Each structure stands twice: as C-alpha cells, then as structure tokens.
Amino acid sequence: MSIAIAQARHIFGLKPGITGNICYHDEQTIVYPAGANCILYNIDQKAQKFIPGSEKSDGMTAIAVSPNRRYVAIAEKGEKPTITIYDLHSLRKKKVLSSPDVSTGEYVSLAFSPDSKYLVAQGGKPDWMLLYWTWEKSKVMATTRTSNPQNPMGEVYQVSFNPQDNTQLCVIGNTIFRHFRYSEGNLKPFNFQKMEPQNYLCHAWVSEERIVVGTDNGRLLLFEAGELKNEINLAKDDKSEDSSASGSTQITAIVAYSKGFACACGPGTVYLFEKTDDKDFFKKAREIKIPADPSNSADPAKPQQQVIKCLTVSPSEETLVASTDQAQFYYLQLSSADIGKGDQATFEVLAQSFHNGQILGLDVCIRKPIVATCSVDRSVRIWNYETCNLELYKVFAEEAYSIALHPSGLYILVGFSDKLRLMNLLIDDIRTFKEFTVRGCKECAFSNGGHLFAAVHGNVIQIYSTTTFECVINLKGHNGKVRSIVWSADDSKIVSCGMDGAVYEWDSFTGKRIGESVLKSCSYTGVAVTPDGKTTFAAGSDKTLKEIADSQILREVPAGDMTLTNVALSHSGRMLFAGTARGTMWSVKFPLTIPGEWQEHQGHGAAITKMKITYDDQYLITVGEDATILLWKIQDKEGRGLKRDKEVGWAEEILITKSDLEEKNASMADLNSRVEELKMENEYQLRLKDMNYNEKMKELTEKFIQEMESLKTKNQVLKTDKDKEEAKHEEEMAELMEKHAKELQDLESANNQKLMLEYEKFQEQQAKMMKMQEDYDRQLQEMEESKERALEELTEYYETKLQEMSTKLEQSNDEARQQSREYEETKKQIEEDADREILDIKNKYERRLRDEKEANMRLKGETGIMKKKFTSLQKEIDDHKEDIKKLQAETAKLNNIIRNLEKDIQGLKKEIQERDDTIQDKEKRIYDLKKKNQELEKFKFVLDYKIKELKKQIEPRENDIKNMKEQIQEMESELERFNKQNTQLELNITELRQKLKATDKEMHQERQRVRDVEAVVRRFKTDLHNCVGYIQDPKMLKESIKALYQKHVQEDITETASVGADIQKEFSRQKEHLERSVASLRKKLEKDSEIHKADNVRIMQENVSLIKEINDLRRELKICRTHIHDMEAALGLHSKMGNKGGDSTALAQLASKQPSALMERKLDEQVKIIDMQMIEIRRLRSNVEDLEKVGGSRPPSGPALPPMQTVM
C-alpha cells in the first residue's frame, strides 16, 4: 500500500491575461505562466523547470523578473492577495509578501527597482492602492492611491520604475498617467501633464527622463519630464497601408532596448522604432507580422488576428519574443531585422503552437510515444511525449468534442459537431477517409487490439468494426449523457459512466449488460478499470471516489470539499490518480483506504477534463479547461513499473499517399537528372579552365624567364653603379670629416674667447655696481645728517622766536595763531620738499640699478644661448657619427651581397659549361635523328594510304550529321505541335471546369428549393395536426380546414407542379449529359497526355543517342588528329613555328647531301602530298567547327540534354 510519486516533466500551453506573462531569465531561458505553475523554459535544450503556485491561491495575476535576472516575483489572487519571490537559480522561495493595506483580491502589475532591492505592486479595484516594498525585509515603505479622482471608474494597467532611479515611478491607466517620487516614507506625485486625459494602455522608459506611452487609439506619445515632446499616430499609417484591414489599432505592448523600442499595434503587428539624430524623434524602422497558418484549413489568416499582449527582449538584445491573447509565443531575431531594414518581417513560432481553448479530448498510443488532443479551438494536435514536441496539427471548420488514437498510431477517430470521422495520420497532414453519421460524439475509444471502436451517440454507445466500418453492436441503457467509456485490457468488457448516475459493464461481444451500479444523486464524469477487469473506480459530482466490484460499491472515499472530475489507473494496477475541479492532480494511496490518503500536486489552472497513463506506465498525461497539457513522470514508491522491451522499441512507420510519394519520387528523379547535368557542365567548365590555366602558365613562365634575364642585366648595371657610388661616398665622407673637425675646433676656440670676454665684462659691471651702491649709501647718510642739522638749527631758531613771541602773544592772540599756522605750513612744505628730493634721488639710483641688472640678465641669457648652441652642435656631431656607423654597416651588407653575387656568377658559369656539354650531346642526337629520317621516308607510302582511308571514313560521317540535323528539326516541329495541342486541351479543361461550377451552383439552388419545400410540408403537417385536434368540434374543424386551404392552396398548383417536374427532368438530363461529356473529356485528356509523354520520351532518347554519336565522332576525330600529329612529328615535318619553309629546307639539305635525281623527285612528291594533306586537315577542322557552331545555336528541344564533349 503506497502513494505513487508524480513529478511534472513538461507542460504545453501558456496562461494569457497575466501582466508581464513572458520574461527573460538569461539568453536561453524564458519565464512564463502555464496552468498553476511558473515555467522556466530553456529554448536550446527544450527543457522546463517548474515553480508551482501556492496551494490556496486562485491563480496568478502578474509576473516580474528583477533587472539582475536573479529573482522572479509572482502575484497571486485570493482572499488575501500575495506576492511570492523565488530565486531563479535555486528555484527556492525567498519571501512571501502580503499587506493589510490592500483591500482588493489581486495585484494587477509588479515591477522591480533598477538595483532589484525594491518592489512596487499595483493593487486592483476599487481602491487601486500602490505599494512600495523593501522586499528583502518584507516592509512596506509607502502606499498611495493611483486612481484618477475625476474618473473613479478608470482602471490602472501598468506600473514601472525609472531605469536609473529607485525613487521614481510611473503609473498608467484609463485617463491615468502619473509620476511618483519616494521621499521620507511617502510617494509624492510630480511632473503633472498639461493635456487631455486618454486611455493609456502601456508604457516604457526609453531613457532616464523619457517615457513612450501607447493609447487605445493607436497613438505613441513621447514624454520628457512630464512634457509631451513628440506624437506618432500609428492608426493613420495602418489605414494608409491597408484600408481594408479590420480590427482595432490599440497599442497593447511596448518594450524598450538600446537602439529604440518595439510596440505592438493592431492585430498581429509589431513596429520597431529606432533613435534618430534628433533626440526628440524615433523613426519606424521595421514592421513585423504574425505569419498565416497553412495548417488551418478553415481560415489560414486567423492567427494574424491575434492581439500581442506582451513583448520582451533578450539580455543581449538579439531576440524579440511576443505573447498573444490566444496563448501563443512568437519570436524574431533582431539581428536579421537590422539586416533587412525597410522590408516587412514575419515572426516565427517559439517552441510550438498551443491550444487556446478548453481541451475536450485526449488519447495515448500503444505503438508510438504520441498523444492526441482536441479542443474547442477546432484543432486536432498530435504530441510526442518523449521529445516534448508537437508532431502534427490541423485546424478544422467544426468543433471537435472527442478523440481516440488507434494502437498503431496511424489513425485517429475524431467526434466533430456534425459527424464522426476516421482519419489517416499522414507524414504532414491529417486526412479524412471515412465519415460516420454520429452528430456531436462526446466520447469515443479504440479497443486495445484496434479492431473495434466505441462511439457515444446521445445516450447510446455504438461499437463499430475498424475493417468493415459497420456498426456491430448498440449498447442501450443510459438515461443521460455518457461521460466516459473504457475498454478492459483484453477488450472483452466496456465500462461506461454517465450523468444519470449509472456505471455499466458491457460484454463487447454480445452487447449484454453484465454489471451495473446506479446512484442517481451522483453525476459521474470519470471511470477507470483494473487490468483484470474485475474492479472499477469512478469519480463524480458527489465529492467521493468509489470502488465498484460485482455491481456493488465496495468503498466510498470522501474527497473533502473537492470535486473529482476524472480518475486514471496504471496498467500495472498499482498506481491511482485523480483530477480535481480546481486543476490539482491527486496521487491516491492504492489500494483505497477509508479515510483516503493522497498527495496533491499543483498542475492546471482550471478543472482537469481528461487523464491518461501511457502504456509503459512511465507518464501520466492530464489536460484541462485552461488549454494546457501536462506530462507527469510517475512511479510507485518501490520504483516499480512496467518495464518496456527495449529491443522492440517504438514503431517508426508513417502513412503517405501514393500520389505524394509519386510526386516526391518524380521530383527526386528531376533533381538527380539536374545534378548529373550540372556535374557534366562542371566537368566541361573545369576542362576549359584547365586549358586556360595551362596557357596562362606558359605565358607566365615565358614572361618570368624574360624578366629574369632583364633583372640579371639590371643587377650587373646596378653593381657597377654601386661601386662608383661607394667610391664617391668614401671621398665625400673623408672631406666631411675633415670639415667637421676644423669647424668644431674653430667653434670651440671662438666660444671660449667669447665666454672669457663676457666673464670679464660681468666682473667689471659687478665692481661698478658695488661702487655705485657705496656712493648711494654715503650720499644717503650725508643727506640724513644735513637734514638733522637743518632741523636742529630750525628748532633753535624758532624756540628763540617763540620766546620773543610769547611776550607778544599776550598782546594779540590772533597774531600768535597766525604765526603758529605759518610755522606749521612752512614746516610741512620743508618736510615735503625734503621727502620729494629724497624720493627723486632714490628713484634715480634705483632706475640705474635696474638697468644694470637687466644688462646683466641679458648677458646671462646670451651665455645660455651659446651653451645651447654648443650642445646642439655636439648632438649633430653625435648624429653624424651614428650615420657613419650605419653607412659602414650598409657597406658591410653590400659587400656580403657582392660576395653572394660572385658565387652566383661562378654557379652560372658552371651551368653554361654544362649546357655547352648538353648542346654537343644534342647535336650528336640530331645527327642520329637525320639518319632515322632517311628510314622514316619508307613509311610515307603507308601514311598516304591511311590518310585516304580516313578521308573515306569522314565523308559518310558528315552525311550522317546532316541527316541527324534534319531529324532534330523535325522533332522540334513535332514538339511545337504538341505544345499547341496542350494549350488547346488546357483551354478545353478550363471551359469544362466553368461548366462544372455552373452545374454545382444550380445543384445548390435545387437543394435550397428542396429544403424550402420540406419546410412547407412540415408547416402543413403541423397545421393539419392542429386541425385534427378539432375533430370533435365540426364547426372549428371546418374553419380550420378553410384556413388551411387558404394558407396552402394556390390556383395554379397543378401547373406549377407539372412545370417543376419538367424542370427537374431537364435538369437531370442536362446534368447526366455534362457528366458524360466531362468523363469522356477526362479520358481523352489522359490518352493525349500518355501519347504526348511517350512522344517526349522518344524524342529525348533520340536526342541523347544523337549527342552520343556526335561525341563518339569527335573522339575519333581527336584520335585521328593526334595520330596525324604523331606521324608528322615522326617525319620531322611538324615544327613549333609551323612554317613550311623549314620543311622544304630540311628536304633540300637531305637532297644536297645525297644528290640523286630520283631522290629529288621523291622528295618533291612527298612535300606536295604533305601540303595537300595539311590543306585537307584544315578544311575538315573548319567543317567540324561549323558543325559545333550549328549545334550550339540550335534552339533547345524540351528539357536540357547532357553537354557535348569538345575536342581539345
């Protein structure tokens, strides 16, 4: 007895409607919500890590990743909304934040500060409270209401931090655009806007002071410090580009990056804006669209109508990722967007596309690791649970309610709203090959053997054969909708449960009910059977899990307040799992005990609709109303499970239609032929290039030899010049050295004399200065003494006068005052005069002293200049010495070169001697060859005979070539005729198609008429039924019959009936005639195409044979030419320069050596014959070249043939 272990491995899906529902953790990992979990998805490795949601939460509402990429904050709604912060590296919970200040049930937006230490959270309606947290201390630093007082109903959508400032926030919403600054425990608003409020949907900071804001009417507003700097109207651009495009132009998402920003505007469209030279402006650089979906057979353009709700850019700014309102991911490489600026780009699907509606059907395969699902979004998808990939999907025009996978994995059974369809799973498509008239089939299942399948039709379960497609058995008994059907392991039983509270066991061979358990108070939704088929487990609306055996409920395990929606039992019979209405998955202790024990796992964000366990008991697959598919890795406590036979492996067969295979084979054949042609062409081109390169090599070698010779002559000339220059240089150097030595001595002596003179002058000036200073001191002392003496005399004089005047003072105070005033004035004047004289004398002598000092300084400066000149001359001398050393080194190098060149000259002399020896040897050989030449004259007659034979062979070949040309021209005329016939047949086909369309339209009109008539008949029946109700009341019966007559009977009913019958006959006759004509035309077209194909093949074969013959002829001609060339060389008649004079002179020399009349005559005859043969060879060559030109200029007949080999 144990509880099985279950661990979430992979989830397919995305939860839309969450703020910031996609973020980057690092360059390869994205963070997004799915179900009740937060997922870390590695794009490269395609692996997922799970952060499960809190147990008592009602789901996530907002997500934010910190700027340092270490933490993720997840806001969850509930009675008390919470924010949970996780470490993204260890996936451990760091903090749980909750505040009594928030009276709402959710947070609508989260944002981390630039240093990741603070977190701001925006509460929901009605009070829209903004909280500023120090999250590491779980402390709320400040709170404020962000709603607009003038518009209390306005919602807040987004909050963000300034990317450079922890204290500055921005909040936007409906008529809300506010800046807040945190200071002293308060959030104070600032930067108030001076414009009319709008519905702001999103925003992003593009710099420290500037924000881009998007509105619901397609406007981008650029604010700087609260002031509107620029406005871009994207709604106008959309209308001008595509006036027929429907849908709103709301700007739903903005993300900033270093080069600019990206914004989502309108359905499925993102615009990239880049910075311009003008700092207030951004230019639109690129438009990116969501691509159409070719797998959507009903409406391929439907994905393009998705609204992009969130954008994010990778940390390296290489990738832009977008999430949509229909739970899809798309991405774009920004580097590729930069390369093709100006063009329209398209997003690519990230990972795979997901369901975007409630998933209703689920089934697993026995022979392949695949899962099939169907959803309210009208799509059928095939997933691989080992590679975690979407293998195949298709969107249909009708809703799919149920799905079943054949054990082979090659077929699926899908219950659509109109019919039940059996489909082939092809390599790249899902195609219907059989339809059953079962409307709205809510449950279907293949037997484990695959030979039967069960489908629910209302309250009846119908069993069909998969080979004959006939209904074998109808299982009747349920009074309500059947919610689940399960086959037993050996296919002998079917267990079903329904809304009527019944769980029935059926014998699949006889169709009899062999077990039943009815509990009307419970509406069953899920059922599972043990491998032996004896025990059934059922889950329903009464919040219990029931164990049923032999039509009796053995155990009833209560589930508390939780409603169980489904139940699944492993094929080993040791693990039991249940799904709940909240989306959690229970691993139940098995066998069941009362009270029950289970372990709860957070999985889906809404009720689990279906659960299946794979046939190797490795995985549990659950699907829910939240459009997600969750793969759980399962094992029992002991780690036991069904061991899969590794040798057998998974089936790798796939289905492909014959026409597709033929098309692919044909395309492969075409490609192979093209490859062969290209190989031939490449070989030919390579040969041509080799020839060109050989010619170039010859030219280059000749040039090189000429240049070598010219360089040798130049080298000799340079040697002589060098010797002369060396001699000159040595003489000049000796002269310069002597000159420099003399100049140096002269300069030294002159400088020494000048220095001595200057020093003497300096001493004289110093002595003068000392004398003048002594004179000045003496004069100053004398002046002071005279001044003191004068003062003493004056004081004595005035004292006597004072005594005299003191007597008179008594007589007149006025005179005394006047005398004292005069005394003071005279005293002042005397003092001033004395001071002025002293100052004049002082200034005079100071001026003289200054002049002397300046002269002294000037002399010192001149001596400094002389010293500098001396040092510069010394440096020049040192430089000259270094130059001399360098020149000596160069002369040493040149001497080495001269020695090497002398060695080379000796080597060349040796070579000349060796070549002289070889020339003597070759002269001997020439003498021997002349002897051989006399012998070769004997072979001349044999050569003449062979040349005549060659001429005879060449003439019939030329005739054959002419005949082949004529044949080719005839074939080309035939090809033209066939092309004309093809065009005529295509016109006929188009006419017939148009006729077919017309007949289809008429047929639809007739069907509509039939429907109208049926409707009239139904109305008449209902009216007649109402009349029959008055059968006891004759008056009412009469009146109702009259009303019936007036309502339904017209006067010309017989005429219309007859006319309708005639029209029907004419229509059927015309239809039969058209069908017959179409069939005959099809047959004719097939015959014509076969004949045409055969003719084309014949022409192609003839062309190939002709080209082969031409190539053979060319090869023979080449052999003949080489043979003739060899013969001419043997005769000594083929010289390099090719002049005939040399041949005649050689023969004349031979004749002069052996002067006989007969020999001379023979030689003359041979020369004439050889000349004639040379003329004939030239003529044949010109003919061959003409033929090649004709072959090259001939128009191509049909497909390209292998190239003809040219004679080298």
TrEMBL record:
Segments for region (Disordered): 805-831, 1187-1208
Location(s), subcellular: Cytoplasm, Cytoskeleton, Cilium axoneme
Cellular component terms (Gene Ontology): axoneme
Pfam families cross-referenced by the UniProt entry: Beta-prop_EML_2
Residue stretches making up the EML-like second beta-propeller domain: 360-634
Biased composition range(s): Basic and acidic residues: 814-831
Alphabetical keyword list: Cell projection, Coiled coil, Cytoplasm, Cytoskeleton, Repeat, WD repeat
Residues in WD repeats: 352-387, 475-516, 601-635
Top-level taxon in the UniProt lineage: Eukaryota
InterPro entries: Beta-prop_EML-like_2nd, CFA-57, WD40/YVTN_repeat-like_dom_sf, WD40_repeat_dom_sf, WD40_rpt
Coiled coil (UniProt feature): 1064-1130
Subunit organization: May form homodimers. Associates with components of the nexin-dynein regulatory complex (N-DRC) and the CFAP184:CFAP263 complex.
Role: Associates with components of the nexin-dynein regulatory complex (N-DRC), a key regulator of ciliary/flagellar motility, and might act as an inner dynein arm (IDA) hub or linkage.
Family: Belongs to the CFAP57 family.
PANTHER family linked: CILIA- AND FLAGELLA-ASSOCIATED PROTEIN 57 (PTHR32215)
Protein name (Swiss-Prot/TrEMBL): Cilia- and flagella-associated protein 57
